[in-house]
Design goal:
alpha/beta, Rossmann fold, seven-stranded parallel sheet, 7 strands, about 15% strand, globular
């Protein structure tokens, strides 16, 4: 949790949409944006119970909030999601493209349908949603995409997901320039190994859980709050001139050769 005395309500009056906002890092981001004063809309696909729980947590903090079910890998669903946001709130100030999926297989084991699913959710969806959401954004809008170390490093059985994360980092750079003329900043936060449900997608024999529970050079493991604090910082006015960048939150882990 952030220090409220330091961050205050710097996002008061802002309207934020967090995709995949019901669990894990997305939930942490939704709660942090709410603590900083934003109205928070969480998007989710399947887990109704988790979405309800996150909404209850936001309401307990006194945060105005809503939840909208939508598959961000589907073009029509993306347009419908943005239409619902516009109808209910009239505009959007912050978009967090956090929702992600993927099939954990090597390149030789992967099927084309697995590739399509992964790319649709992790790369095409954020592109389509960013363009659609930008129509609702006033000057000063913020788009933050979530990536992972697999965008630039080869991780076991991570082929499709890693390629999709590399794609979203490229999408970030292109949109940062294209949407910059509208006063909208676009950046990526790349989170190291954080202990969430997503870690369970890795086969046990790959040892990813062990890596996630191993202290980083910072002296401790990475938490969802570490990631959410950086995302929230990028949503504030102090980060206005950070554009098209990939901010790595890994406690220095990627600096080491293991």
């Amino acid at each position: 949790m952030s220090d409220s005395s330091a961050t205050g309500k710097r996002l008061k009056g802002k309207i934020a949409l967090v995709t995949g906002g019901s669990r894990g890092i997305g939930r942490a981001i939704a709660l942090e944006l709410g603590r900083r004063g934003a109205t928070v809309i969480i998007n989710y696909l399947k887990n109704h119970a988790a979405a309800r729980t996150t909404i209850e947590e936001l309401e307990a903090l006194g945060v105005e909030c809503a939840r909208i079910k939508a598959h961000v890998g589907d073009e029509a669903a993306v347009e419908a999601l943005v239409d619902k946001v516009e109808a209910q709130f009239g505009r959007l100030d912050i978009l967090i493209n956090n929702a992600a999926s993927g099939v954990m297989r090597t390149a030789s084991e992967l099927k084309a349908k697995h590739w399509d699913w992964t790319m649709d959710v992790n790369a095409r969806g954020p592109w389509l949603l960013s363009v659609a959401a930008a129509r609702l954004m006033p000057e000063g809008g913020r788009i933050i995409n979530l990536s992972s170390p697999g965008a630039s490093r080869v991780l076991p059985a991570y082929f499709a997901v890693g390629v999709s994360k590399a794609a979203i980092e490229a999408v970030t750079r292109y949109l940062a320039v294209e949407l910059g003329a509208k006063g909208i900043s676009v950046n990526t936060v790349s989170a190291g190994y954080v202990m969430t449900d997503a870690i369970d997608a890795f086969p046990d024999e790959l040892g990813v859980r062990e890596i996630a529970t191993h202290p980083t050079p910072a002296g401790r493991v990475i938490t969802p709050a570490d990631v959410s604090n950086v995302v929230a910082m990028l949503c504030g006015s102090d980060a206005d001139m950070i554009r098209g960048q990939v901010i790595v939150v890994d406690g220095g882990e990627s600096l080491q050769l293991r």
